[in-house]
Amino acid sequence: FDKIFNSYKIEHNLKFRVRSSQTTVLYNSTNADQIPTEFQWVSKIFRCTHGVSQSSRSKGHRNRKIRYCGCKARFTAVVNRTDAEDFTIKILNENHTHSHPTTASEASSYLTTKTLPLDEHDREDVKTLADARVSSKHISNFLNDRIGM
Description:
Elements: H1 2-12, E1 16-23, H2 24-30, E2 41-48, E3 74-81, E4 87-95, H3 104-108, H4 120-131, H5 136-147
Antiparallel strand pairs: 1-2, 2-3, 3-4
């Protein structure tokens, strides 16, 4: 599921995050209807990152774009028994309409640690700063200055 879903997100320029999940081990410990442990999760609720608001833990102000726009796109993936021995992953509670652009240019504006335009020298500088126990705020400011954000 994860491999197919990741391909789908890349192809359609979408960003989702898991908002809630239940492990197979926990489910099996409280239910008679056992799910094979080859499934790590019995269920996961996915929400578009534009529809997930998280309270700021910061004391300062960031001069950055805010992603939240109340997007209702979501779905729940659950392991579903099809017969005595077979299971599938079923999609429930799907709302596939996004309330924001899902273009490639929009998606590319969401920098993550994997997509930051850093060269090997920048990465070494970050390692040095981290080893010196420099705060994440200072490392972020350093990177923002370095890449011109």
